[in-house]
Write a structure and sequence with these properties.
It is a single chain. By secondary structure, the protein is mainly alpha-helical. The protein is flat and about 65 Å long.
């Protein structure tokens, strides 16, 4: 393994995928955040926790501009960190993945990681806009969500190890086993403790846009890393001939 080349490929792939993610989020998720925060502000005014004054809106607009301006940079930083994990997993599992080139292998792996680390946990604990969720339960909700991700991820790893002991025709048994396992976890984990008080159409559309945003990252990181790996082949050592 060409270590330095591997590191460059992983970091660049993660950064580009994070750039895609941040850009997509800015384009399709931010408008729903504006709507949700607008409702939250109206609730603050109605409850007396804040006053509808020019000063409030100046501070609010300044804060939102700061948030939006950092959206893409935050995506790149997150992309580098998650992309590094993806690159390590790909390097370790590459020889076991089906496919006749690294692009297909990397896209397959990114799809598996998207499913097990994001989409299945999302189905149990879907993303909500800012108007949904009690501040007193944020720690509990974070623990539940991260616990589900960890269980799903480690479960995938365990069943992958088990599958290596089975012949190709019997690997379906392991896939069914994982399905039974994750289904038991899904229905056994506690529900989200917060009630949804925001308009359901806003919540549903926000969730759909969130899925598209995160999916853009996993599709991009698999495609970009696969292309770089296929062209540069960091897994092959450079041989030097001597006369």
């Amino acid at each position: 393994m060409k270590t330095s080349l591997f590191i460059v490929i992983v970091l660049v792939s993660g950064a580009f995928a994070g750039l895609v993610h941040g850009t997509v989020n800015f384009a399709i998720v931010e408008p729903y955040l504006d709507q949700a925060i607008g409702l939250e502000n109206q609730n603050l005014f109605a409850s007396g926790e804040a006053e509808n004054t020019p000063q409030f809106w100046v501070e609010y607009e300044g804060y939102r501009v700061w948030q939006k301006s950092g959206q893409i940079l935050a995506g790149v930083i997150l992309g580098v960190s998650v992309g590094s994990l993806f690159g390590i997993v790909y390097a370790l599992s590459r020889n076991s993945l089906p496919g006749n080139n690294d692009v297909k292998k990397a896209i397959l792996l990114s799809g598996i990681m998207w499913l097990t680390l994001y989409f299945i946990p999302f189905l149990k604990y879907p993303a909500n806009p800012p108007t949904v969720g009690d501040a007193d339960t944020v720690i509990l909700r974070s623990i539940l969500y991260l616990s589900f991700i960890a269980i799903s991820g480690f479960g995938t790893l365990v069943f992958y190890k088990i599958s290596k002991k089975f012949q190709a025709r019997k690997k379906l048994i392991v896939l069914i086993g994982y399905g039974v396992f994750i289904s038991a976890v899904f229905f056994g984990m506690p529900e989200n403790p917060d009630d949804i008080t925001a308009p359901m159409n806003l919540v549903t559309e926000f969730r759909i846009m969130s899925v598209l945003g995160v999916s853009s990252f996993w599709a991009s990181v698999g495609l970009i890393l696969g292309i770089f790996w296929n062209r540069l082949k960091p897994n092959l050592e450079t041989t030097t001939s001597y006369n």
